[in-house]
Write a structure and sequence with these properties.
The chain has helices spanning about 1-10, 10-15, 20-30, 40-50, 55, 60-75, 115-135, 145-150, 165-175, 180-185, 195-210, 225-240, 245-300, 310-320, 320-330, 335-350, and strands at about 300-305, 355. With about 350 residues, the protein is an all-alpha fold.
């Protein structure tokens, strides 16, 4: 083939070599005197690389291009997974996976920003205090060299007696050296065999959120569910390390009760607002119906004095008591002609105006 002969020609590949396979093919296509499609050039180069080992080793450029083409071929030939479609409805098969980011989950915020912060801070302080007590009570099983090794890597540096250790440092220390504590069976409750899990959960879901969490505008940072999760995790950590769980359990119950009460108040307020809106809707419909009726009647009557139609429309908008009663009587008439006649007579009598039927 002429394409293969041209590609094999000394200097062709080297002269048109670029930093990527795609740009190299483009350059070959631009400079090829044969006027062949780019795809034909690409396919011919692929065939040469596949069948001619000497061509692949001819120069560093040939080696590079051969590597690119072989990499592409390996990716294309690699078999992909196949899963049963029986668990998916036919209408869902072949639909594209959602690419846009879904909206955030709607969460309830029953407490003020200040109250949210106060509750979380109290749980956090209790856990920090109980962690320190745990270390103090078990200092006799912790080798001094372990503490020395740990504090060397801390920035800012920690005191050897942990007097300036914060919650994160203490959790990291316990996790790193959990084997020391497990040997002496100092943990309690459902997490006594694997305390690392609950400690990591607390670190990620409470400590990190407290340090780096994002406020939800005026609602605050801690939704009802997030606060309840803080309370739950705090109780689990305190129980696991054998701390004073009675107080933290009691505070958790108090917080849950407070959230429940505030949630009920909010629900009652929303129901009240909805009730007011529901009451307003019929009135709005009635006014719209009345205005449409008047505009329809205007097509069949003539005002003798300019501005009378405007006054009638104003009565409808303001729901004048006498006008509303006239409207209720007139709309009961069977035909439009009867409605126009009755409306004209009643308006002329009751409001001393001079309307005339067309």
């Amino acid at each position: 083939m002429k394409i293969c002969s041209w590609l094999r020609k000394s200097g062709t590949v080297e002269t048109n070599f670029k930093d990527t396979l795609e740009s190299t093919i483009n350059e070959l296509y631009i400079n090829c005197p044969l006027g062949v499609p780019k795809e034909s050039l690409y396919q011919s180069l692929k065939d040469i690389v596949k069948s001619d080992e000497e061509f692949c080793k001819k120069s560093p450029v040939h080696v590079k291009i051969s590597g690119w083409l072989k990499e592409v071929a390996s990716k294309q030939s690699e078999p992909t997974a196949r899963f049963a479609k029986t668990r998916i409805s036919k209408t869902e098969i072949n639909k594209n996976t959602r690419s846009s980011t879904p909206p955030p989950i709607n969460e309830k915020f029953s407490l003020s920003r200040e109250r949210q912060g106060a509750i979380v801070e109290r749980f956090y302080t209790v856990v920090e205090s109980e962690l320190y007590k745990f270390l103090v009570e078990n200092e006799n099983i912790i080798p001094a060299r372990v503490v020395e090794s740990f504090i060397k890597r801390r920035k800012p540096p920690l005191s050897p007696d942990f007097r300036n250790a914060d919650l994160l440092s203490m959790i990291n220390f316990i996790i790193k050296h959990v084997g020391i504590f497990l040997q002496k069976s100092v943990f309690h409750g459902e997490h006594k065999v694997n305390p690392v899990k609950i400690l990591k959960d607390y670190k990620e879901k409470v400590r990190h959120k407290l340090a780096h969490g994002i406020s939800m505008n005026e609602k605050g940072r801690w939704s009802d569910l997030a606060i309840q999760n803080v309370a739950h995790l705090s109780c689990q950590v305190v129980a696991c390390i054998g701390g004073n769980y009675e107080d933290v359990y009691a505070f958790r119950e108090k917080v849950n009760g407070e959230i429940a009460r505030q949630s009920m108040k909010r629900a009652a307020a929303e129901d009240s607002e909805e009730s007011i809106m529901n009451k307003a809707r019929p009135e709005k419909r009635k006014r719209n119906e009345m205005i449409n009726f008047v505009l329809n009647i205007f097509e069949e009557i003539e005002e003798i004095k300019e501005g009378q139609k405007k006054e009638i429309l104003k009565m409808a908008l303001q729901k004048d008591e006498i006008f509303v009663k006239i409207w209720e009587i007139v709309k009961m008439q069977e035909t439009k002609k009867q409605q126009v006649s009755k409306f004209t007579k009643l308006m002329n009598i009751m409001f001393d105006i001079n309307l005339k039927e067309l």
